[in-house]
Amino acid sequence: MERWDPPYEARVIWKPGAARTGRPPRLSIRCRGEGSGTTILVEHSGGTSLRGAPREEQELGWLATEVVAPLLLAIAPARLAEWADDRGGRRPSGPSSRALYKEPIYHLPGFHAILEGLALRKDDLLLEVGCGGGALLKRALATGCTAAAVDHSAEMLAVASQQNARALAAGHLQLRYGDATALPFPGERFTCAVMSGVLPWLPDPVSAFREVFRTLRPGGRFVAWTSTPKMYGTPAVGPKRRGGARLYDDRALTRFARKAGFSDIRVDHPDLRPVARAVRVPRSARFLFGPEYGVLLWARRG
Ligand SMILES: C[S@@+](CC[C@H](N)C(=O)[O-])C[C@H]1O[C@@H](n2cnc3c(N)ncnc32)[C@H](O)[C@@H]1O
Q1: What residues have CB less than 8 Å from 253, skipping those under 6 apart?
Q2: Phi and psi for 39 in degrees, rounded to 5?
Q3: Residues 39, 116 within the same domain
Q4: I need a surface site. Which of 61, 153, 179, 284 has the fewest CB within 10 A?
């Protein structure tokens, strides 16, 4: 967590009315830098017991617990980053995320690599975990396959439904609200499964992979597209920090897949810079599609 610069102390002292005696109630706010964070003590003291206390004393207690402490928590520097992560990636919401995930330009090169590798056919039944605004589904469904998808953002599901309204109406697509670690689908249903840009937001990737494994038919193939740890510190991901995006090296990804029960596991680092150029990713960001920044994990249910 980032820290506020100063160790400082602010005090609010509530002056009692002239006729009142005793120690005036006070609210003190003390900040102490500790390690990489800041400890803040908000203390309401003095005065009489709150029950039956004069209204102004009650107001000070209310101010301490209901206004000052939550406000300080909300404006902590790390909270801003958490908010942006949630709204932009972990559980996208708000108008800009709804617009972005309709056609997520920075994910299009990944979609290209996924679809090329999966080579979907009409008889495929595809599962997408964390479908966002349904842009990959739209491309997948164009191959004639059928699909089902899950996301835990209601706003993303609404965008995905609009984008794939025809496929939904024709019964070629099922969209479900749910979590990656408890998929709302029966076992052995799908011929293939995909996750694009979801791994960084999963607290427990192995549990999610186990669910994919459970819902795949024997022989079913799985592909996950994600960024490598080299992406930390770039404008796409920002600095590595607790609670932020989690990026894994090839060994960790392979281990997750093996623990979930998969076989035929391999990782690919395609050079997607030409695709990035073709889909008009801005020139300054194209280097992020070089082989060292992105990874495809391929696996099969044996
Ligand atoms: C960065 S977005 C990627 C969206 C889409 N796959 C794409 O590539 O454009 C991550 C998506 O995964 C979803 N997601 C993250 N964690 C999830 C979970 N535990 N269960 C279901 N969906 C999840 C988010 O709501 C979001 O829509």
Answers
A1: 199, 224, 226, 267, 295, 297
A2: -95, 130
A3: no
A4: 284
Same domain (yes/no): 213, 108: yes
> Which residue type does 35 have?
G
Using the mean position of ligand 1's atoms as its centre, give its distance from the Cα of residue 271 in Å: 24
Adjacent-strand bridge partners of 42? 29
| pLDDT digit string, tens, across residues 132-150 | 999 999 999 999 999 999 9
Write out the residue range of the structural domain in which residue 62 sits. Answer: 9-75
Q: Which atom of ligand 1 is nearest to the CA of 132?
A: 27
Cβ 211 vs Cβ 220: under 8 Å? no
Mean pLDDT of 88-98: 96
Model-level pTM? 0.84
52 in the same domain as 95: no
Q: How far is the CA of 217 from the centre of ligand 1 (A)?
A: 23
- Helices in the chain by DSSP H: which ranges? 55-62, 69-75, 77-85, 95-100, 108-118, 135-141, 154-163, 165-169, 205-215, 250-259, 273-278
Query: Ligand 1: does its nearest atom lie under 6 Å from the Cβ of 156?
Result: yes
Ligand 1 neighbour 198 (Cβ under 6 A):
yes
Distance 268 CA to ligand 1 centre (A): 21
